[in-house]
Amino acid sequence: MATVAEQPQIRPWSMARVIIASSAGTTFEWYDFFIFGSLAPVISKVFFAGLDPTPALIAALALFAAGFAFRPLGALIFGVVGDKLGRKGAFLITVSLMGAATFLIGFLPTYAQAGSTAAALLIILRILQGIALGGEYGGAAIYVAEHARHDKRGAATGWIQSSASFGLLAALLVIVATRTAIGEDAFAVWGWRIPFLVSAALLAISVWMRAKLAESPEFARIRAEDDLAHAPLRESFGKWRNLKRVLIAFFGIMCAQGAVWYFTFFYMQVFLEKSLGLPSQTKDLLLIVMTVASAPLYVYFGWLSDRLGRKPVMIGGMLLALSCIFRRRTGSRQRPIPSSSRRSSARRFSSTPVQVAARSSSIRSEPPSSSAPATSPSRHW
Amino acid sequence: MTKGINFLTRRSLDGRTYVIVGTERVPISGGEGLAAPDVKALKAKTADAISTELQEAGYPKSANPKRANITLLIVILLGFVVAATALYGPQAAALVEMFPTRIRYTAMSFPYHVGTGWVGGFLPVTSFALVAVTGNIFSGLWYAVVFTAISVIVALLFLKETSGRHLQQV
Questions:
Q1: What is the rounded distance in angstroms from the CA atom of residue B166 to the CA atom of residue A57?
Q2: ipTM > 0.85?
Q3: How does pLDDT run across A165-183, given as a tens digit for each residue?
């Protein structure tokens, strides 16, 4: 194929600008997402004051989950926009929508001021955040990938992947700085608004950087050739050739990706604090160490996949995750935490077992033991 | 409060709910018909009773930081970090290369967000629920194991290598 040799000629600095502008936007969106998760306990007090503390926390966590639940909807909406009108337009809209929704959360009336209207407004903004994030990621990854050289695509898009770490770090830093500066009491009353309001500055930077970018060369090419899809949804999911790839992408990559990544960066916190009984400061510190260590590794493994291939690197990651999990389950000789849950407890367990006896229906619905690790959700989830 | 111990769940013979530590029984009441402050008091009282029984039976109250091998813990955690980044680092390029430019945005965004939003986003809640139902603090790990194993098999059988592919040719 003669035409294949035509590489989009991108100068190095332009490529750096493409990567920076795209990852700045995704960093900012992850920031928005993480501050909400980290502030769940405070938010539950401010917006669900009409509920008891435990249902209020559950409501706040459910709200956090609502953000996740609506992401596929955003993916469909902005996927169509991005395929029909262009990458640039789609990811300018998503970053603006995300920023506006987050900024407005900082201005919401509290339960004390507006009653359940406040909670309803919060839920709406939260859903908008989820929809925006659903459109954002694809746009940024595609935009960078469609600019990158074929043999450097993995390394270039690795930066987009690492933006999740930068966003999480920024969120932790802003929250810790605000808490330290104004104190815990003021933070609970009005200080929680600051991390949301800070997003306005991040929004301005992201929009400014992205507005200066041109359309991706690949999209410009098919637009020039009048080869745009008229019905991207029908073409993606209605044609078996494409649907098959969607299914392989989901079952072959994304199932493991969702499970391993969220296990490592979310569930691990809960596991360390609730199940292993580590102090929450130690757990926070470990989380920061993990996040900092991970940032360069995304780019490294993206680069490695340009050399060795995507498949061996990704499958290697999946197998390593499985072996780490089984090591935790079975490696009794070398357990890091000889704690309540570990050796001493295991020995004790054989002599003095703990049982929870209940009618079978209530075993399912309410674990009655207050010592069960699962009855209280982690504050930091 | 004692955290993170394994427990067995079984059917109660008389239909009432107990927490049994060795031979000691702590009855659990649902607190039906009580006012909110009374329920709270009841909860605290029950938690205390369980906590006391557990400590008398020799279960330690919480992790002893001096006995924790933080170095080994960090090594294991970094193992997970390497696994997660090896999977996530190349994944954007891999998804982009799977779909033609015409439908790329739609076709890659949807599986990505079902995977991260649903499989990933609901992982903490589901894993928690598994721990609560089974009473084993490690049973929550099965959720991650099952989904990862599915991907290993499907990727090995069906995923094509796409590295270095020209996007016009997809």
A1: 49
A2: no
A3: 899 889 888 888 888 898 8
